[in-house]
Design brief:
With 251 residues, this protein is α+β, with helices and mostly antiparallel strands. It is 46% helix and 23% strand.
Length: 251
């Protein structure tokens, strides 16, 4: 799940991590297999694999599980034949959805995604209907107690970041993909820990969603994220923090 309010969505996701851990590790393993299969098993030569390893470690996946997945992918063994597919559509309230999946059977996945969307008040769109609304960006969240605004701003901008936004929870750093590693390394060298760091699709503009539609939007996105083939769900919603907290309390 990823909307404009990255801090709110990260809190919402953390509340669900424990009950989804098994499914999350399964998806991360699939991501590792696919990355290793397409670019080889050496993360120093395969950027996609390096990022997949970072995500797996952030989810506390054991090293031996990570190594087995890479071995399966680089060896071309059973279960390594995954295809990357993007689905586009809409959630209630006209909220745009960009759904990234890894599947070994697109003829199974497409109708299942369509059915999930329709069941939760959304709809599947044609290729290109919402993709133009998003740009690939690096997004790094830093808690307020890790650095002051001036220090973090100077550090991030010098490393190539586009912007540093202050929120009630801390700071949100955005950058172009080419600057992502440099920004993370600059923070690491200064001993600044991150709450979250990822390369993802960020919307150019957002739609503010209030209580009733927010619950429906989040319900749909959670249903999509539960699907075994879905790796990421990006959206252009902006749910106010107090609304997100109320929705989370009733989940």
């Amino acid at each position: 799940m990823s909307g404009h309010s990255h801090w709110s969505t990260i809190k919402h996701k953390k509340a669900l991590v424990d009950k989804r851990r098994g499914k999350l590790w399964s998806k991360l393993s699939r991501n590792l297999i696919a990355a290793a299969r397409s670019g080889g098993g050496d993360p120093t030569m395969n950027l996609a694999l390096r990022y997949a390893i970072d995500k797996a470690k952030a989810a506390n996946m054991p090293n031996d599980t990570i190594d087995r997945a890479i071995a399966r992918g680089s060896g071309g063994g059973e279960g390594a034949d995954f295809e990357e597919i993007a689905y586009e559509g809409y959630a209630p309230g006209g909220v745009a959805l960009l759904i990234q999946a890894l599947t070994d059977n697109r003829n199974r996945t497409a109708p299942e995604i369509k059915k999930l969307l329709e069941r939760h008040g959304g709809k599947l769109g044609a290729t290109g209907c919402v993709a133009f609304m998003f740009k690939k960006k690096g997004v790094v969240l830093v808690a307020a107690d890790q650095a002051d605004e001036e220090t973090l701003m100077e550090l991030a901008i010098d490393a190539g970041a586009d912007d540093v936004t202050t929120t009630e929870d801390g700071f949100e750093i955005t950058c172009e993909p080419a600057a992502y590693d440099a920004v993370r390394e600059a923070l690491k060298q200064r001993g600044i820990e991150t709450v979250s760091a990822e390369l993802g699709m960020v919307p150019d503009a957002t739609i503010t969603v209030e209580s009733d539609p927010a619950q429906k939007v989040l319900g749909l996105i959670e249903a999509l994220e539960e699907h075994d083939d879905v790796q990421n769900v990006y959206s252009n919603f902006d749910i106010p923090a107090e609304v997100m907290d109320r929705v989370a309390a009733t989940s």
